[in-house]
TrEMBL record:
The name this protein goes by in its record: Endonuclease III
InterPro entries found in the cross-reference section: DNA_glycosylase, Endonuclease3_FeS-loop_motif, HhH-GPD_domain, HhH_base_excis_C, HhH_motif, Nth
Organism placement in taxonomy: Archaea, Methanobacteriati, Methanobacteriota, Stenosarchaea group, Halobacteria
Keyword Transmembrane helix (UniProt): no
Cofactor(s), by name: [4Fe-4S] cluster
Alphabetized CDD domains for the sequence: ENDO3c (cd00056)
Broadest EC class assigned to this enzyme: lyase
Keywords tagged on the record: 4Fe-4S, DNA damage, DNA repair, DNA-binding, Endonuclease, Glycosidase, Hydrolase, Iron, Iron-sulfur, Lyase, Metal-binding, Nuclease
A GO term for molecular function: class I DNA-(apurinic or apyrimidinic site) endonuclease activity
Function: DNA repair enzyme that has both DNA N-glycosylase activity and AP-lyase activity. The DNA N-glycosylase activity releases various damaged pyrimidines from DNA by cleaving the N-glycosidic bond, leaving an AP (apurinic/apyrimidinic) site. The AP-lyase activity cleaves the phosphodiester bond 3' to the AP site by a beta-elimination, leaving a 3'-terminal unsaturated sugar and a product with a terminal 5'-phosphate.
Record note on cofactor: Binds 1 [4Fe-4S] cluster.
HAMAP family: Nth (MF_00942)
The reaction(s) this protein catalyses: Hydrolyzes mismatched double-stranded DNA and polynucleotides, releasing free thymine; 2'-deoxyribonucleotide-(2'-deoxyribose 5'-phosphate)-2'-deoxyribonucleotide-DNA = a 3'-end 2'-deoxyribonucleotide-(2,3-dehydro-2,3-deoxyribose 5'-phosphate)-DNA + a 5'-end 5'-phospho-2'-deoxyribonucleoside-DNA + H(+)
Family, as annotated: Belongs to the Nth/MutY family.
Amino acid sequence: MGTPLEPRSEQVTEVLDRLYEEYPDSTISLNYSTRLELLIAVILSAQCTDERVNSVCAELFETYQTPEEYANAPQEELAEAINSITYYNNKAKYIRSACADIAEEHDGEVPDTMSELTDLAGVGRKTANVVLQHGHNVVEGIVVDTHVQRITRRLGITEEERPERIESDLVDIVPEDDWQQFTHLMIDHGRATCTAINPDCTDCVLADVCPSAKPDADIDLASGDPW
């Protein structure tokens, strides 16, 4: 079991320093060329791999280019186009509704505020943060996905459980200049090493500062369950 640094801000600084070195090219892995494509891709990515989303979107973005085209697409047609995505029926409904609002209420442009984005169907704070950061170059929070949620708890950076509470906790201790990259670094580390099941603690650059590190730790602090 590793020993986290105190105070938590020191733990965050050490974690960032090591992960920046480990993943120097860390960035968003979704493919898109417009703000609308980014929004669609992020909606589709909920509980689905980015690799799958990119595969589906390659054809989807050739078929539909404007909010009006998505909004006017028959539900069955759009659902069929994304049927390899998890919850594709619901996501097709969200996309059609969100695009109708974008066309009718925002002159066909993806909104650039948190409140307007989260008013769209299928768009929560996590999705809105991604769109703001990568579509509008506006960073006003930290995207908390499953990797961020899991790893920050394992590292003892937060004890919060819900994404909204985790984000509120993190913005107080993560330097604002690192908010965007913090998420990308956590995602890369979560995919490469700190996986949800059977993380590779023996080859982890954070093992000595991680209170969840196997084999010495008895508990996975992310879940609270024994290893």
